[in-house]
Amino acid sequence: MNELIIIKDNKPIIPSKVVGKIIQLYTLKAELEMIEKELKEQAKEYIEQHDGKPIIVDGLAITYKKATTRKSVDTDKLKADGKYEIYLKEIPVKASVSISVDLWLST
């Protein structure tokens, strides 16, 4: 595996070539997410006008889920009633790393 982070003088260094590739990745990802959002909006409009029939083109299937409601616990009321702590449980969360790219600065 290539060394993406190099430690020099006990400090992490990421080569500019790697930084450039990451910026390209995040730029492409942002562009694709915008395309996906627009595609979903247009598909939703089309499917709603055509009795909920899915759109199937060249192995791509776009289906529609009707609006619905769901039930959830009113945590504010539980807290006000003093019962919130009774039903509270802790769940372990794995460590993670996040990467962010300011696309405005990278162009």
Plain-language structure description:
By secondary structure, this protein is an alpha+beta fold. The chain has a domain at 6-68. The protein is 45% helix and 11% strand. It has helices spanning 16-49, 75-80, 84-87, 103-106, and strands at 6-8, 11-13, 55-57, 60-62. The strands form two sheets. It has a two-stranded antiparallel sheet with strand order 1-2. The longest helix is centred in the N-terminal third of the chain and has 34 residues, at 16-49. It is flat, with a radius of gyration of 23 Å.
Radius of gyration: 23 Å
State the shape.
Answer: flat
Strand tally: 4
- Count of individual helical segments: 4
Strand content: 5-15%
* Helical content class: 40-55%
Distance separating the two termini:
29 Å
**Main structural class:** alpha+beta
The pLDDT mean sits at 90
Strand adjacency order, main sheet:
1-2
List keywords for this structure.
alpha+beta, 107 residues, two-stranded antiparallel sheet, two-stranded antiparallel ribbon
Summarize the model shown.
By secondary structure, the protein is of the alpha+beta class.
Task: Summarize the helices and strands and which ones pair or pack.
Blueprint: E1 6-8, E2 11-13, H1 16-49, E3 55-57, E4 60-62, H2 75-80, H3 84-87, H4 103-106
Antiparallel strand pairs: 1-2, 3-4
